Amino acid sequence: MFRGKIFVLSLFSIYVLSSAAGQNTSFSALFAFGDSVLDTGNNNFLLTLLKGNYWPYGLSFDYKFPTGRFGNGRVFTDIVAQGLQIKRLVPAYSKIRRIDSEDLKTGVCFASGGSGIDDLTSRTLRVLSAGDQVKDFKDYLKKLKRVVKRKKKVKEIVSNAVFLISEGNNDLGYFVAPALIRLQSTNTYTSKMVVWTRKFLKDLYDLGARKFAVMGVMPVGCLPLHRAVFGGVFGWCNFLLNKVTEDFNSKLQKGLTSYAVEYDFKDAKFVYVDMYGTLMDLVKNPKAYGFLEARKACCCMPNAIIPCFNPDKYVFYDFAHPSQKAYEVISKPIVYQIAKGLA
Length: 343
What we know:
mainly alpha, single chain, 4 strands, 46% helix
């Protein structure tokens, strides 16, 4: 009985921290879309093997509680939201899960671990595709309208919110498998990814979004998974995969600068978030930022149940995800960039 009370109290405390907004005056909310870099627990409700709701995930989270976040603690969604003074924790959205009215007004997460901008990636991994996430956002808008009562207020919240997007990591991170299945060259495939991204952003724009922070793909060739498979005993990065990633990121960045002019994105603002360069800096210079290890993962390789009790010393917590500290380090200039570019 006593244990049950502690558990309820822990969940209540997490809920209060999630709902408590800061003194932000620039942005009304933060909405996250995309993959496991941003997912705060949406995969918990899906029939997929890609889940983060078991220990040792959440080892550094409040009360060491695994919430479905793919890491040892808070993920990039939470850290950016706090940096923008919106709130400390961003809850996962689900049609079957009740979300507090304050959280509805200040932002939720629609991202799904394993998702890609290519529907083939999402279907293969049985997770929420970009289109599924747009559908969930439409459902969210109905709930928001019931909470705030006025259509004008809904429009105000959505148009003033930051839409944080992370797509492409899984499309490229699984050895560019979708491109191979489609029998396309990597150059053709990365160009199509940019087109799919534009369509995704336009779908959100048509629903009221105006402020987009679009994240480039991480240096996936230097993830512990690819070092283990490609690098052998030396732990080298997969440079060919990094080259494809850089190609996509370059095309995406150029695309974002042209959307407002060449396509129908009136009054929209775009900020490109350089996840590749910021994370690569940590990978190349870990000790400069207080890390001891940038090649190997802290946990979950090869045995998922072996915990790691010093995740702050690792750039990566598991085979594909940065640690909470890594997110915190790279977020500082990124948050400033988002705040300035979308103000």
